[in-house]
Structure formats: C-alpha cells, structure tokens
Amino acid sequence: MDALNHLFQTLANLVRFEKGQQQESFLVLLLFVLSLGIFGAAMCETALPMTVLAISFVVLLVLSAVLVWREHRLAFLPLVLLFLVLGAFRYETAAKLPANDISSFARQEVHVTGRLSEEPRYTEDSDGQIKIRYSIDVTSVRAGGGEAQAASGGCYIYSRPVEGRAIPDVAIGDVVEASGKVRLPHGYQNPGQLDTELLLRVQGITASMAVGKRGVKVTSELRPTFAMRFHRQIAAIREHYAASMMEVMPQRDAAAIFAMLFGGYDGIDPALLVQFTTTGIVHILSVSGSHISLLAAVLAWLGSFLRLPRLVTAAGVIFAITIYTFLAGCVPPVLRSAIMGGLTFFALALGRERDARRLLLVASIGMLLVWPLLLFHISFQLSFLATAGLLYLAPRLQAWFVDHRVPRLLSGSFALTISAQGATLPVIAYYFNQLSLSCLLANLIVVPIVELMIVFGLFAGLVGWLIAPIGKVVFVLDSLLLGLVRELTRVLAALPGSMIWVPTPGGAACIAYYAGLGALLQSEERKKAELAFLVARRKPVGAVFVAVLVFLAAAHLAKPNEMAVHFIDVGQGDAALIVTPHGHAFLVDTGGTRDGAYDIGARVDVPYLLHVGVHKVDAIFLSHAHEDHAAGAGSILLNLPVQHVFTSSEGRDAYAKSMRMSTADKALAKFTALQTGDRYTIDGVTVEVVHAPAAVDETEADGNEACDVVRVRYGKASFLFTGDMTKEQEAQLLAADADVAATALKVGHHGSDTSSSEPFLRAVAPRYGVISVGYDNSYGHPKQTILDRLASLGIETLRTDEQGAIVFHTDGERMRVETYAQTHRNVATRK
Question: What is the overall mean pLDDT for the chain?
C-alpha cells in the first residue's frame, strides 16, 4: 500500500493538484478519461482499428514513463491520453465476440451441448403454466445435420414441463443437450429502457433457445470440481431455506423473505413490490449493487455508534459481505459489488476515510479495465454512485445534522439515505423518472425491521439444521414481521407525494448536478476563495449569466409548435403516442402479450411515457381488443390519469378480458365505442375515425374484422393507423370512396400479407410506412412480399424491430424522423 501511495503521490504532484487531495483527484481524473475512452469507442459507428490503438498505447506508455522518471511538469498529459486510448482498446477487445460464439448460429436450428452454469429457474405465467430457464456455457454446436463443432458463449434454454414426464434432475456443472432455434437477445429499444442485450452480454449470455416441451437431456455427470461442489452446496443451502419457509408461512411471504435474504423478485406479491418501489427501499430485494454498499455502510456506522473496536467493525463488515456473496451464489454482479463494497468499507470501518475513497476509485478503474461493458450497466452505475455518495456526502451531511442538534441515531440514518439517493438521482431519473419522497421515513422505520428480519432469517435457516422446531418458530416470527413491514410500507406509499415524477436529465443537466455536488464538498477555505474570485469578477460573470439566460429564452421562443408521433417498440404489437404542440398526449393502441407473461403496459408503456415527460393521458384509442393492441392499457389506467378510452364495437367485456380486468372495474366507465365519422380535436390536432365497423360474431371471425381505423392530422401532416385491418376491409373502404390519404401509414397487421393490398397503398400514397413488429417473431412478420410492395411504391419503410422507437416531428408543413436504434446505437456487440 505504501509503495502504491508513493507512486500515486508522485504522479499527482506532477499534475499540481491541491495539497492533501493529489492522489484522490488524480484517480478521479484517470477514472473519468478511462470511462470517456470506453464511451467514445462505443459511440463510433464502426470498430476502431486495433493496430492504431495498440501502437498509440505503446507510444504513450513509453512517453509517460520517460516524463514521469524525469519529473517533467507535462508528465500527466500523455498519462491521461494513455488511459483514454486504453479505454477505447479495452472496449473494442471486449465488445467483439469470438467467431465460434453461439450467437453466430442465430436463426439456425441446432443441437447444442453445454455445462449448466447455474441452478434452473422456475417461473409461472399468468395462466399457471410453468416455464424453466436453464443457463449453460456452450461447448459444442451441431447445425444442419453436420458434425459437432466447438463453440463458446452463454445461452439461456427455455423449456416447459410435459405432463406425466419428470423434469430432469440437474445440478451445476452437468452436461446437457438441447435442440432448437438460436435467437439473439433483443429487448425493447426505447429511450429510458434497460438494454436487455447489454445486460445479458455483461453476464456472458449471447443467445437463447426455446425448446418447449422437448426439454433438455442430461448426457453426463462429470466428476465435480471444487468450484462445482461449492456452487451445489450453496444451492442446497438456498433450497433448504426455501423449503423451511414454505412449511410454516404463506407462499407470498416465503418469496418475499427469500428475496430479502438472497435477492430476486420471483414469486413476490406485485403489490408489495410496488410499495417497496414507491417508498424507495426496493434495493432490499437485491443482494447486489447499492444494497451491499448500504448494508456495509449501516454496519460500519453501527460499529461506530456502539463504539466497537475498529478492527472488530471492519471484520464484521467483511464477514457480512462475504456471507451475502456466498448465499447469493457468487454470481458476477454480486462479486463485483462485494469487491467494491468490501474494499471501501473495510477501510472506512478502520477509520481511514481517505483510503476508502481511493480504494473505491482504484476498484472501479480495475473493474472497467477487466469488464469495460460495465460502464453501461445500471447495476454498476448505481453501485458506484451510491458508494461514492456514502463516502463523500454522508460524513458532511451527518456533521451538519449533528451541528443542528439532530439526534445521533437519526442523523446517521438520514445522512446515509440522502447521500445514496442524492448521488444516484440522475441515473434513477433517466431510467425510471421517479423519486421517492417517503424514502427517509421508510429507511428510518422499515429498513431496520427488514435488517432484523434478515438476521432472524439467516439464523433460522442455520438453527433449523440442528433443531428444526426452533428454526420454524423463528421463521414464523419473520413472517409476522413481514406483515408489519407490509402494512408500514402500504401506509407510507399512500402518503401524498410519496412518489413524484422526475424529468429525464440531459447531459448538461447531469454535469451541472454533479458539479454542484462537487462544489458542496469543497473545503470552506476553497469555497471562500472561489466566492472572492466571483465577487472580484462579478461584472463579466454577471454578463455571462445574463447571456446564457437570453440564449435559453430565445431558443425556447424560436422552437416551432410541433406535434410528435412516437411509434413505441412494444415487440409484436402496436403502440403509438401522439404529443400535441402544447403537451397534450393520447395513445393509439398500447401493445401487450397474448399470454400475459410480460406486462407491456407497466414495463414498457408507462416508463416510456414518463421518460418523454407525459404523466397524464387525454385519451387512448384502441383499434380492437386483441392483447397485442389493448392489453397494455390496463397498467396505464392503473398508473397514470387517463381521461377517456375509445374502443371498437366489440364491447367492454372483450377489453376487460384482454387487460385482465374485472368486468366490474370502475375504469371501464371511461370506455366509449367509436363511430365512423367521429372527430376529436386536441390542441390543434384532429383525430378522425375513418372506419369503425360493427361488431361481428366471434365464432365466425378472428377479431381483426372489428378493427377501427383512425387518422391523426396536424396541418398538412397526417398519420393513418390501421391496426390489423384486413384486405377485405381495405377493399370496403376503397369501394365506399373513403379518404385514406396520409403522409405516414402504420402498416397493417405488423406487415402481414393479410393486409396492405397494392390498391390500398396507392390510395393512401404515404411517404413513410411504419411497421410495428417483434424481433425475430414466430409469425414471420413482416412478409417479404409486403416489404417489396412498399419499396416498389417508393414508400420509405421503418421498423420497430430494427430501429426501435420511431419518432416523427412535424410543424404541419415539414417533417423529420428520429429512430432510437440509430441515434442510441446498442453498445453490447460489435458486428
């Protein structure tokens, strides 16, 4: 440590940082430029030449060594550039997959062999069907009936149990085989949405297969290695805990307490999950990320409060983190968080606050060098920022509370909570657009109870092996405490303003925010010096401030009155958001899944609306009751104020069924069936009902015949939404001489050949055709014949499966279009 400190000190002195903060500031600079190099390489449209990067790295390394040896005053410059190049180099090496990776067999039917890397995961969909997910490290692949060839990469295999057939008994390390079609990971490509492909890539998963009821076959059981035996023993311990809890408490209680002990959300009561999220304590259900940091911080603070010897406190912190890491399965995200939290809070517990901050920076630099893709992972972002907040902000806040005579017990809890929330606010705002105002009370009242539950739960499982009745009694006590936690969080979540909407921050806003936090951390002497500097130059500073205000005001006034039409990527479904020039919002369809296994409304639509600043909806227009068009509306109605819902003629019961709502739900009172010729004007934007057919006999139709067609107009710009309208309906419209002309067409039925006849396309004569479709869907949409037809008619085609969210902006005369996948290129894989 002393040698490392001496090296950092020498380098930092060359950078001429303020005395006492040289090492820390120098490490912050290195972390920043390393991250900048990773980010810059990711944003490049093409891969950077590795030879150029390697030569640049060697030259800068030699130059840095020479200048440092000579103690030259410019030695820091090549060193900073070195880390910039190193970041780009590491990104390029990490992002490129090997030639034999399982992802290279995408869309092929293959027979794959691999070793199970984690215990099978069992989930249940809304219809009660069990789904099994196996995670394997691929060793070989046989494609097209040929010979097996060596392969690599992680793969998820999804299977369903067959009635009357036993589910294979597998353990970590077993060799398994399966046959199916290889699919690439692909999430919903919308702003503010978590990047599924990237998250899986960081975990080493590059492909998936759905084998259905064919299942997997265990071909051999290798002699287990020490690592395999270790993982199997951890899995056995977790199974023991789960089985013991299920014996003495309701299933939903067991799921919640198991999550508190080991992390995860499987089987948790959705209402409890919402309450935890609203009160800002959902981190309790994750053993990785900020939870480890907060747990370590609480233990370190508790040791200080109880005046325990520093070495005892440090040992307790490391022991707690180690136990949690083992029981959570030692998966990579938990290991990374344990390293970060363990190193920093070990030093903190020993009273070496400055060393703790330096260790955090060193650990973060090391992690980005080993796993550069972590920079884009929300877990890493929250872990680093929460830990930094606890190390940099919490001591200042606690001292401020103590100076203002806040009791020491409360000051510590308040300081920890505010610091973690404050440091992560921009990231939380970007991804979730929500901020919990009840988190202070929840952390003060609820979290201590939860921590007690965790201690009781761990104790109960251990004692249960020796004296089963005592373990059961303690688990029952845990269940009772959970009831108290459930009631407390329900009350806190119901408080007015408990959860507020936060606008999505831009890059400038984030820089200003963290610059402000940095200013708060300056020493009093530094603050006084900076204030004196500003006062001495108040005239030029004031002029710059006024100029900035004038510029912002002029930019706002010069902004044209535009309507925005967002085609949201909801997979195999339709959903479009229209935002009027003055911020009114309405939706045309909302997407959804037919099996209800994934709540598109809650997990795609609502986050998208909040991300673009929509927190109330004037109206929802639903073309028909099929789930892939209407199911998402249910969660929108639950989470946001909605004034009206306009439907086709199928009846409210059909929509209630699609949304999985009770037919007695009060929200159905907002539903009104449309009629042909209806017109609605909102803020200068007109919605015309072009076609609203009468209800048809469900036994003689598939539901698409009842599809409404609406057109949205603003000035000379217009958008025609056809839902799943069939060719027969298109012919009826043309025969009735209906006006269907539009600037942009939402292509019917996801590009199926049951829609988009050539006469209809010629009548619409759109400039753009938008296809809302799921990536690599099983229906084969869009059909090539439709794509060829659109191209032959000169219609520019845009697809949500390829380009993600598609947004049109128009002032009624001119129109421009943005696509999310092009402006926010996926950084997970170089292709």
Answer: 82
Alpha helices in 437-467 (DSSP H): 439-441, 447-466
Residues ≥6 apart with Cβ < 8 Å to 442 = 279, 280, 281, 436, 488, 489, 492
Q: Write the secondary structure of 1-28 as one string of H (helix), E (strand) and C (coil).
A: CHHHHHHHHHHHHHHCCCCCCHHHHHHH
Distances (CA, A) of 588 to 289, 667, 717, 784: 38, 18, 17, 26
| The predicted structure's pLDDT at residue 566 | 97
Three-class SS state of 143: strand
Rounded Cα–Cα distance for residues 346 and 304 (Å): 13
CA distance 289 to 293: 7
| Tokens (6 digits) for 222 | 């290798």
pLDDT tens, residue by residue, 390-441 = 788 888 888 888 888 878 767 877 787 788 888 888 888 888 887 788 887 8
What is the spatial distance between Cα 351 and Cα 307, in angstroms, rounded to a whole number? Answer: 12
pLDDT grade for 807, boundaries at 50, 70 and 90:
very high
**Residue 96 above 80 pLDDT?**
yes
> Rounded distance, CA 136 to CA 117, Å?
5
- The topology (CATH level 3) of 102-222 is OB fold (Dihydrolipoamide Acetyltransferase, E2P) (2.40.50)
Left if phi > 0, otherwise alpha if psi is -120 to 50, otherwise beta: which for 370?
alpha
Cβ atoms 51, 85 nearer than 8 A = no
End-to-end CA distance of the chain: 42
Residue-wise pLDDT tens digits, 180-192: 999 998 889 998 7
User: What is residue 3's predicted lDDT score, i.e. its pLDDT?
Assistant: 47
DSSP string, 762-777: HHH--SEEEE---TT-
Identify residue 268 by its one-letter amino acid code: I
For the chain, residues classed under CATH 3.60.15.10 are: 563-823
pTM of the model: 0.81
Residue 798 in tokens: 């845009």
Rg (CA), the chain: 29
User: What CATH number should be reported for the domain whose range is 563-823?
Assistant: 3.60.15.10
Q: What is the pLDDT of residue 523?
A: 64
Residue 55: C-alpha distances to residues 52, 61, 337, 516 (Å): 5, 10, 34, 39
What the block records as the tokens of 437 is 């105002």
Stretch(es) of the chain classified as CATH 2.40.50.140: 102-222
**Which two tokens mark 413?**
């809890």
Residue 97 and residue 103: Cα distance in Å, rounded?
Answer: 9
Query: Backbone dihedral region of 750: left (phi > 0), alpha (psi from -120 to 50 degrees) or beta?
Result: left
Given a contact cutoff of 8 angstroms between Cβ atoms, the answer to whether 51 and 104 are in contact is no
CA 87 to CA 463: how far, in whole Å? 49
Q: Residue 4: pLDDT above 60?
A: no
User: What pLDDT was estimated at residue 332?
Assistant: 65
